[in-house]
Specification:
With 292 residues, the protein is mainly α. The protein has one domain. The chain is built from eleven helices and no strands. The protein is globular and about 55 Å long.
């Protein structure tokens, strides 16, 4: 097991097999259920997540779950597009294109930084140290299940677009553009961060988008799902409840992801100056710190 985890190629192969089996399990559970679409999808999604969790326990590495965030939406929405029995519209095509661009980019970014299953995300290690004997409960409920539920809520508007054969209009176009802006922000932010880490300079990144915002990649992720919600509203303006996923996703970043990242960055010298010079999300310079 240890030799497999140390090999990047073997680790990739192991993760790939885990996700193929998880997808097969999810599809089988969904097909076996005779419930509403949303409830059947939720149960199937949880079953696939539980399988990935079990594999993370076997590999003793919660980062087995990391690709789930970016793989699940394109897979489920593509299946919904071809299995819902409705005609495929331009609005549906725009939605799928936006989600696939986002998913491929985010999965590629994960793959570029994946050293193998010998490494685990620092946040999971921190949670393991803090939770002690309760770690497996935290692992399943916090690291695996909670993000799955957030992503599930985020893709429901997209499922609605595909299952209602929504027509393309100005709001569809606006939502599509918001998705592209979000994906673009994430692409450039992650590319700039990777270059900074490879440079070995250390400290806080103060170039590109990161010069003006501490978390421009998170802003891109937030915009992505508000864009999907906007595309759903284009079909039915009164379906405001479909925005729950985008809202929960935004709150997760504001109150969980950003504070965790900031606490880790606060250990580095110059944190107070960097925080004073840069906003949290919006890449807009502060007037008193143009030279920072």
């Amino acid at each position: 097991m240890q030799s497999l985890k140390k090999s990047r190629t073997a680790s990739f192969a192991a993760v790939f097999i885990v996700y193929v089996l998880a997808a097969a399990l999810g599809a089988a559970v969904y097909s076996a259920l005779r419930l509403s679409f949303a409830l059947s999808l939720l149960i199937a999604d949880i079953a696939a997540t539980a399988f990935v969790y079990l594999m993370s326990v076997i590999f003793n590495n919660a980062s087995v779950y990391d690709p789930y965030w970016s793989v699940q939406p394109p897979a489920i929405l593509t299946a919904a597009a071809f299995l819902c029995g409705q005609r495929f519209t331009l609005a549906g095509a725009a939605l799928l294109l936006a989600v696939w661009l986002w998913g491929v980019r985010l999965t590629a970014n994960w793959a570029l930084g994946f050293p193998g299953l010998v490494h685990q995300d620092w946040r999971y290690t921190m949670l393991r140290e803090k939770s002690g004997r309760l770690y497996q409960a935290v692992n399943f409920l916090g690291i695996h299940l909670f993000p799955t539920l957030v992503v599930y809520l985020c893709i429901l508007p997209g499922c609605f677009v595909l299952r209602t054969a929504a027509a393309f209009n100005w709001l569809s176009a606006l939502g599509f553009i918001i998705c592209l802006i979000g994906t673009g922000l994430e692409f450039f932010a992650d590319r700039q961060m990777r270059a900074f880490r490879l440079s070995g300079r250390g400290g806080h990144i103060r170039t590109g988008l990161w010069k003006y915002a501490r978390h421009p990649n998170y802003l891109g992720e937030i915009l992505m799902w508000w864009g999907v919600f906007a595309q759903a509203l284009s079909s039915s303006p009164l379906r405001w409840q479909l925005g729950l996923g985008a809202l929960v996703n935004t709150l997760m970043f504001l109150f969980i992801s950003i504070p965790m990242a900031d606490r880790r960055q606060a250990r580095k010298p110059g944190w107070r100056e960097y925080r004073a010079a840069t906003r949290s999300l919006l890449p807009i310079g502060k007037k008193n710190h143009e030279k920072c």
